Amino acid sequence: SVAGTRRIQFAEDWADGVSRLTLPQVSHATPVQPIKGPRVIPIKVGLLNPNGDEVVPTLMLEMTQKKQSFRFEGLASRPIPSILRGFSAPVVLDRKTALEERAFLLAHDTDAFNKWEAGSALAKDVMAEMILKGTGPSRVWTDALAAVALDESLDPAFRALCLQLPGEDDMAQTIHAMGRVPDPARIHAARREMAGALAIRLGEGLRRLYDALDDGLPFTPSAAQAGRRALRLAALALLTRRDGGKQAARAFAEARSMTEEIGALSALLEIGLGEAELAAFAARWGDDRNVMDKWFALQITRAAPDAAVPLTQTLTGHPDFDWKTPNRFRAVIGSLAANHAGFHHRSGAGYRLLADWLIRLDPLNPQTAARMSTAFETWPRYDAARRKLVKRELQRMLAVPDLSADLREMVERLMAAG
């Protein structure tokens, strides 16, 4: 009934063993609703002491006013608050925190959502610093994430999720939201450097983690086994950066499921290896179209930025590339758009290749062509040179005499957005 998403701001006062949390709720005016009163907002909160112990277990604070304060008394030291545990309300929490506090919550918070949220925000902050200021990976981040990765009391699936670094397109949007122009090449380089630093920090712990997660049992689709597989493959991806792909090659040869094969193959492709494994995978799964879609897509999404467009062009000449089949078209051409640094290569070759194929596909399947044109929708956030290259391709598509109404509408929207 009320437009917009509520924002919860946060302030903390500490004195004489009392922590006071002040939480105003903010909702900006919209044309139909210029004035918006307070709403009931449930906010789960816990407090941790500097040693990581939980001194105030999770409790529910009920906001009913525009601004409220909550007091916690009898504390021996200033606590670190864990706010909005379990994502208890669909609101945005506006809270500026230092890297050290986010690292502390990643390492010690007992709430899974806030633990992951702290880690995700921390990784973005570290990567943004690397991209914009040329700093190195933060030891605060690697130490905190290593504590999570090697904590056997945590669910394996959760640990695997925490080990995922922010995506490159996500980082481009983050940097754009900071009022800066994202550089796809720098984002790609920073992400690889972070993964390498984490692999070094975990050291031999990666090998022990990888070996410990091998239960030797036949494949089952159970959640427990899937979680163990996810963490094992995450460890393998990092281990591959240390051993040059030796373990990944063995893992591919000994895989007991397609998931393990793809995970090992992905790790090899990330470091520029895997030619023999690609051939073996195609020989084994060549008759399964859905699996071969993964084979096509994996090569392009894992390709180095300079190689992404040439590889895509090569794969469009593959005997099994049927561009008239939507799934196969998306697996190849769509995967180029998903390779952030490759698609946004400074040469503009990715833009040209996508436009060429959209023009070709449009007479046969205008709906798919229109949907895939959304790969261009973020073009206004990049530098002037890239915007010029994208604009040229959009204008080229609009100049096609018999362009479908579907694709024309989308391209005109994209042009207007820029």
Q: Report the strand count.
A: 8
Number of helices: 19
Which stretches of 5+ consecutive residues score pLDDT under 50? none
C-alpha Rg (nearest Å): 24 Å
Shape: globular
The N- to C-terminal Cα distance equals: 32 Å
Helical coverage, percent range: 55-70%
Task: Report strand %.
Answer: 5-15%
Question: How would you sum up this structure in a few lines?
Answer:
This protein has 418 residues and is an alpha+beta fold.
Task: Draw up the topology in text.
Layout: E1 7-9, E2 11-15, E3 18-26, E4 41-48, E5 54-63, E6 67-72, E7 80-83, E8 92-94, H1 99-108, H2 112-133, H3 139-149, H4 156-162, H5 168-177, H6 184-202, H7 204-212, H8 223-243, H9 246-253, H10 258-270, H11 275-285, H12 289-301, H13 305-315, H14 326-338, H15 340-343, H16 349-361, H17 366-372, H18 384-398, H19 405-417
Parallel strand pairs: 1-8
Antiparallel strand pairs: 1-3, 2-3, 3-6, 4-5, 4-7
Helix pairs in contact: 1-2, 1-3, 2-6, 3-6, 4-8, 5-6, 6-8, 7-8, 8-10, 9-10, 11-12, 12-13, 12-14, 16-17, 16-18, 17-19, 18-19
Characterization of this structure:
- The protein has 418 residues and is an alpha+beta fold.
- Helix content is 55%, strand content 11%.
- It has 19 helices and eight strands.
- Strands 1, 2, 3, 6 and 8 form a five-stranded mixed beta sheet that branches. Strands 5-4-7 form a three-stranded antiparallel beta sheet, with helices on one face.
- Helix 3 packs across helix 6 and helix 12 runs antiparallel to helix 13.
- The protein is globular, with a radius of gyration of 24 Å.
- The mean pLDDT is 95.
